[in-house]
Structure formats: structure tokens, C-alpha cells
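Kindly go through the following sequence and its C-alpha cells. Advise at your convenience whether the C-alpha cells fit the sequence:

___
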Amino acid sequence: MSAFVRRHRHAVSSLAILAAVLVTSEWLLGARWLLAWIDARAPVFNSASTVVHIQKQLVHMELASGRAAGSTRVAFVGSSSVVNGVDVALIRSAWRACGLDWDAQNLGAIGLLAHEVPLLKRYWSGPDTVVVYLYNSFSFADRPMTEAMAFRWDTGEGLRLLATPEWWRYRVDVSAGIAGEVLTLVRFGELYQEMFRRASRGAVPRPHSAFDFDPGREAPPARHPRVAVEALPESVRLRAAFLESQGDADTLGYRGLRRFVQLAHESGQLAVVGPVPEPEFGLWTSRYRVGTRPHEVHARVARVLDGSPVLRFEGLPQVEADDLLFLDHIHLNKAGRAFYSQYLARRVPELVARKRSADPAALACVARAAG
């Protein structure tokens, strides 16, 4: 035994015990059976904190990304508009009906912004994966959602995206993100605590729905007046996100979109980008959206993608004009979700078939849908 170890044996022993505890906790808390149990019983929206909601969605992503390689996986990435607007069960069913052996996965996350898509690349990248990024007109904001930085993080990509002043401004959140990237206990800690509390009370039932808003409890759809309300101040983060996404500023969000394009180009991975439907009435009745110009966002996205290998599709103005397809100023209701999901079930294979002309299953699916 060296003189150093003899002099500091108590400290060395303590460090060894700490290391053993960390390794054991990582092994236990990262076990797929535990993550699967949590994923099937995680708290529904508004029944726990925002952080718990963020972490449960990451658990879902982690399980989805660990699937066995083989058939094509289509990963739909975006905000809560994707969580609640894309019915992957319906899409899988439509694909099976036309003989397409593809898997559809919903990797939506509350408040997800464009710069976070590269930060989550470990969940959507892979040679058998088609990644479909569905953006909102607030997605290209210049400020991050700080509550999510400790969990939705990748240090290498963060170094590329954040300028030095931003690293310093968000240094506490970045430090937490680096820890969360390495340690399961940090990444999912609050979710584990919430699940333990619920299990101790015997209150961990499976949720009634895969969506944040229970389809069985939706308010009846209604038509909305086109009378402008007073806008919220720009100091409100979501209002600022809508405003920052329009225009020509080189925001964090547009840097993230360009990095997403670069990642797809470097890896040869098929990537698709398109907007999620946002209701027209929200441009009058939502204090977050009133007076904003989503057409500028779509035009800017088109310019970023022009000449890139990333596939793109346009919006659905006929859906956005139909008030009865929306739950609120941003989310589709069950009827809107069904329509949009059926559209994606047809549109994604059609786009993929253009790029992979030798894929007979995709071509057959497109032909049958057209017929």
C-alpha cells in the first residue's frame, strides 16, 4: 500500500463507496424494465410538475431509441403539438394496412424548441430511422427553455450552438445538463421521486390516454371570433418565442435547424421537416400569438432547407382554418389529430419514396393511398 493511500485511507474508502453507490444506482435506475414500468404509468399532464413531465417524456424517448435494429423507424419530433397531434397507433395501423412494415414513434416533448433537436440526436439518429421534425411558429426562439436544459442536453452539440456569452448566462443550467447527460439519477431524479411517492400510496394506474389531454374529456369544439385580443408583453417567454421566430435574426433556433440539416447530411439519414397545424383563430384570440406572422417563419425555414438533402412539406391551411379541429390556440383535438395523423401516414412514405426509389414497400404504400 502506497504512503498516500495509507495517509488518506479513510478518504479513499469513502470515494470507493461513493463510486460503488453511483455505479449501482446507475445500473438499477437505468434498467429497461424499470423505465418501461414508469413509461406505462407516468403521471398525466398537470398532475405533477413540469420537470416531472419533461423527464417522463425523456424516459419514453430512451425506450424508443433502444429498439432492435431492422425495419424502418419513423421518429416524429417536436413540441407538445406533436405529443398531442400525432397518433402513432393510427399511423402504424395505416401502414400495416398497405403492407408497410415501418414503426412510428412519437418523440414529442413539452415546449421543445428547434435548437434542442440536435441536443436530442441520440434519441432520433440511426441508419434505420427517418426523423420527421414538425415545428411550430414559436420553435425558432432565441432563448432556451431553462427548465429543460438539465435533462434535454448534449454537451458536444451545446458547445456548437451556444455562443460564449450564452454559456455564461446559462452556466448553472448547462452545468446541470452536463451532470444529467452522465447520470441517470440527475436526468430522471424528480420523476423517480414522484413515482416512489405514488407507489407508496398505491396510486400508479396506467393513464387513460397516450395524450396530454384525455380525448374523452375534451370540451366540445367551437368556432371563434376573429377579434384581436391584447397581446402579452415580450417579457413573457412564449410570446417572445413567437416574435423571435419571425424575421431574419440569427436566433438560437435557426442555428439549431441548420445544425439539424448538417447532421442529416453528414450521416446520410433521411430527414423530413414540416409545420404542425396551428389554428388560424389563434392569431386573434391568443394573447401569445396575436399579431404574429407565421408565414415569415415558414419562408425562413424554406430558405434554410433550400438545396439541402432534408425533405420538406408545406402546411395545411384548410386544417388551420377549421376551428372545429382544435382544442385551444395551439393543439389539435381528437378529430384534428386523426386527420393530421392520416395525412402524415400518407405524406411521409410519399416523400421517402422520392428519395429511396428502390423501396418497393414505400412505393406500394403511396400507390395504394393514392388509389
Residues 127 and 330 are 33 Å apart (CA to CA). DSSP finds 21 helices and five strands in the chain. The radius of gyration is 22 Å. The mean pLDDT is 87.
